[in-house]
Amino acid sequence: MTAEPEIRTPQLESDLEGRGWHRLPKLLTPSDCADLSAMFDADERFRSTVTMQRHGFGRGEYRYFAYPLPAVLERLRQCLYESLAPLANRWAARLGASASFPADLPAFTSLCHASGQVRPTPLLLRYRAGDYNCLHQDLYGYLHFPFQVAVLLSEPDVDFDGGEFVLTEQRPRMQSRAHVVPLRMGDAVVFAVNEAPRAGTRGTYRVKMRHGVSEIRRGERFTLGIIFHDAR
Ligand SMILES: O=C(O)CCC(=O)C(=O)O
Ligand SMILES: [Fe+2]
User: Fold this and answer.
1) Domain count along the chain
2) Do the record's keywords include Secreted (predicted)?
């Protein structure tokens, strides 16, 4: 991990408000990326494996980590949570939600566990030529943190072609808007899990976000997904 991730709050906040995503360049070093990708075959690290085509989720494979998480992931998850929790609370207030997110991840994890969401959600994804990830949301129960993070672990144009990270914003009474997030190896994207508040001329409205990955045309693409709420 590159020291402590540099999170510039005003930029993060205005990006998430304006378009639902913010890029964190070089969140992980190339050697962290290689170590994490290599973990894909370490069965003892994972609690379950999903073959996406079996569920109509797309094509490719992903694996949910078991607790305890690898040290670099645990540290990153805690540190990102702490940076994002104040904004999560501001969003909850604007969306009229009663949720209040504690300042640190162990406290939020305790809330998840108390409401029956006990299984870890961070995951490793592997795509090969022809694979893709359909637009979706990562909601795993009643409690959900409004942001999640994905870190690209492979290098575009070198390790793979295609495989763009995409997001859509579904806006009330308007056509959906699409985003393609430019990522290099080690870069991360912070994005809204579900609903994002947006300032309109007649007050705040809600935008529904979905994310996915376009088809990989060549090679192999790994991603680390960091979701903060645990699953039922
Ligand atoms: O592979 C990707 O870039 C997207 C992964 C994903 O869906 C996630 O991290 O939740
Ligand atoms: Fe996802």
Assistant:
1) 1
2) no
**pLDDT tens digit sequence for 139-151:** 999 999 999 999 9
> Is the CB–ligand 1 distance for residue 125 below 6 Å?
yes
Could you list which residues have their CB under 5 Å from ion ligand 2? 138
- Determine the atom of ligand 1 nearest the C-alpha atom of 227: 10
E-assigned strands of the chain?
21-24, 46-51, 58-59, 61-65, 123-128, 132-136, 147-152, 160-162, 165-170, 177-181, 188-192, 195-200, 203-213, 216-226
Give me the domain span that covers residue 28: 9-226
Q: Is 4 inside a domain boundary?
A: no
pLDDT at 10: 87
Residue 91 in domain: yes
Which CATH number do you get for residue 17? 2.60.120.620
Q: How many A from CA of 203 to the centre of ligand 1?
A: 32
